[in-house]
Amino acid sequence: MANKLHEGDLPPGLFDGVTSVAIDSETLGLRFRRDPLCLVQISAGDGDAHMVRLNRQTYDAPNLKALLTDPAVTKIFHFGRFDIAMFELHLGVITTPVWCTKIASKLARTYTDRHGLKDVVKETVGVDLSKAQQSSDWGADVLSPEQLAYAASDVLYLHAARTRLEAMLNREGRMALAQACFDFLPTRASLDLAGWDEIDVFAHS
Predict the structure, then answer these.
(1) DSSP per residue over 72-99, as a string?
(2) Cβ distance 3 to 51 under 8 Å?
(3) Are 103 and 78 in contact (CB under 8 A)?
(4) CATH class, 3-196 region
């Protein structure tokens, strides 16, 4: 297991041949146009995590953008709605196809209201994640080993969580419903960016 930091972009061909990658991102906050996208972390489910520290002046990362838009590679997120919107805003790409463990958890684990990454991974994978570095300076000139370990942990277990949640969804006959939600997720992210982030467009009122 290794955590690898890349400056500006992914190396070419790094994920050639894979059919799914787990992805997360780190920002300076949760406001779309105030807070910049700083780091994108990716794992192919092989125990390694690759982290791209983006050039915030240009966001010129062609290899990363190609991966995000590759129709042959499913991108696995936890609460992908935020990351996908950030990628659209800063990288100018629509990320697809996608799979979200938070949506899957809400549809499969109806016996609980605890759907954060820490709770989902603990139940489905048996790993207790540390969130100690969740609120830290991701725009720093040098990222600490603790920050990189935290960022890596957000993607290292998503493949295993997806496998468990997919089995639960199939068992309960909800996999097709979940897939429809995943397919809509990039559009939901675009709505957020367009100003409908706190409005349910499906609501009666």
Answers:
(1) TSEEEESSHHHHHHHIIIII-----SEE
(2) yes
(3) no
(4) alpha beta
Q: Rounded distance, CA 52 to CA 38, Å? A: 8
Tokens of 21: 């990658």
Going from N- to C-terminal start, the domains of the chain cover: 3-196
Q: What are the contacts of 166-170 at 24+ separation with CB within 8 A?
A: 166/104, 168/104, 168/108, 168/109, 169/104, 169/107, 169/108
Distance, in Å, from the CA atom of 48 to the CA atom of 45, rounded to the nearest integer, reads 7
pTM recorded for the entire structure = 0.96
- Looking at residue 39, its amino acid is L
In residues, how long is the chain? Answer: 205
Each residue of 93-125: b (16+ CB within 10 Å) or e?
bebbbbbbbbbbbbbbbeeeeebebbebbbbbb
Q: What is the pLDDT of residues 54-84, one digit of tens each?
A: 999 999 999 999 999 999 999 999 999 999 9
